[in-house]
């Protein structure tokens, strides 16, 4: 059910329950009518009010036939017709409202009473200031506020980088296990790391392929963990927001694998850490910068390239850093980021 159907249903339910309206179904279709239901209520001054749902294509010549249908149903010769108008064409709607205010004509919607809603149903554009219309406006306003509140809440939920937090949580959890088994919160025991799944070429060659993934969730010390998690916290939300959670997860795990594979083929060292996957996120960030360079500017592209270059340079300048793992993650993240780009 779309928003238009939802708001019509909401208005009908609340108007029939709380405002004393009854329903009549139109047997014929008329140009511009968006719902076959007409709401009818007997007013205290002897008049009868009818409410129809239409769009800006509705013409007042149809009023005669709708009033005739209501009169046959309710014997209401003195009828006020209120039109709830759902607008799609902003320019035409503005012209109709201007005509209603300044140049009344039998060919526009000035006859009777009216309430104009915009195409997204999040704003009342214009309405006749009468007690009957204002009752309906109150119902519509309540609906708009409820829907707007839910949309805002949904947007806030979507903006939360939940997968980034989950990945950080897994890394921290694995480090706590490592620390307990090592008996040291600051530094990890190498034998514990191997036991938990570090990248050890000889063991991978024997079929322990899971180490290509598990090594990316292990860290050699609290500083190693802190630096990587800070980098993940800084980069992850951007990639998650642009690509979406599933593609972001794919980029992350493909980068883990390509990082471990290049390290496996080119380095005999035992390897651990999330930095290969983080370099993969840097590669995906480079894809974003290149694809959206007109929006983000060339300086953003230059900054990303500089960050990648500086981090690679630091890696090659420091001992005990798996630079092949970094390069493998960067290559994997860049390639998969480009392949799954859909913007």
UniProtKB/TrEMBL annotation:
Q: Where do the TM regions start and end?
A: 163-186, 209-227, 248-266, 272-292, 299-318, 324-341
This entry's Gene Ontology molecular function terms read: serine-type endopeptidase activity
Main location class = membrane
Alphabetically sorted, this entry's keywords are:
Hydrolase, Membrane, Protease, Transmembrane, Transmembrane helix
Name of the protein described by the UniProt record: Rhomboid protease GluP
Similarity comment text for this entry: Belongs to the peptidase S54 family.
What is the superkingdom listed in this entry's lineage? Bacteria
How this chain sits in the membrane, per its record, is: Multi-pass membrane protein
Native source organism of the sequence: Clostridium liquoris
The subcellular localization recorded is: Membrane
Name the Gene Ontology biological process terms.
proteolysis
Q: Report which gene this protein is encoded by.
A: gluP
